[in-house]
Every structure is written in C-alpha cells, then in structure tokens.
Amino acid sequence: MKALRACSPGDTIWCQMRERGECDFAGAYCMVQLLRDAAELLTPRVLDLNEIPEHDGAVFIEYKRGDEDWALYVYEDGPFFKFNMVACGGVMLPLEDYGIEWRAWTGRPTPEQRWQS
Question: What is the residue extent of each domain of the chain?
Fold first, then answer.
C-alpha cells in the first residue's frame, strides 16, 4: 500500500522510495512489481478470523446458506463478532461458526470462489 500511494506512472529513473532506501527494485521492474502487488491487493480473499479486527474497511459477509451482505466490522464481543450490516442493521455472528456457516471476504468474491450450495 505504501508503494501504491507513493509511486506514479511515468519516469522510473528516479524513485522517491528508492531514494529513501525503502525500495530495492531498479528501473521499470518496480512498476511491474507494483502492478502485481496492486492486483493481489484487489483480488478478493477470505480473511482469517484473526485478521477481521485488523481489516481496514468494509468486509463482504458470505453465509453458507447463500445469503450475503456488505458489513462494517464493529467489534469482538466475547464469542461473537458484531457487524454493522449495510442492508439490515447490526448482527452478531458466532466465532465458532466462522468458516463453517459464515466467512468474511476482503471484497465481493466471484461465483467460482463462493461456497457452492
């Protein structure tokens, strides 16, 4: 994310990240790596349970039964995660059911990535 915010397309002979010693790539290769990193960041993936509290931004909640919704993570409350759901208000989801009945994604998964009902 740091490189995505700092780099801009164009002349890659001079790079402020490399100048500060924060990038080891030389020349145009860094732009290729930057695009690879950006694609990885933008590809939806299932969050590990311990990543949910640290995730920055909205998460896509997928339920085994086929329901789905966008949510903003609120907080962990004992054996539950409490989410502020975009469509239906608050909901508490049991931690013990994570990966079994529900899971959180970094973005909307493709139909091929979702649980097959």
Answer: 2-42, 49-105
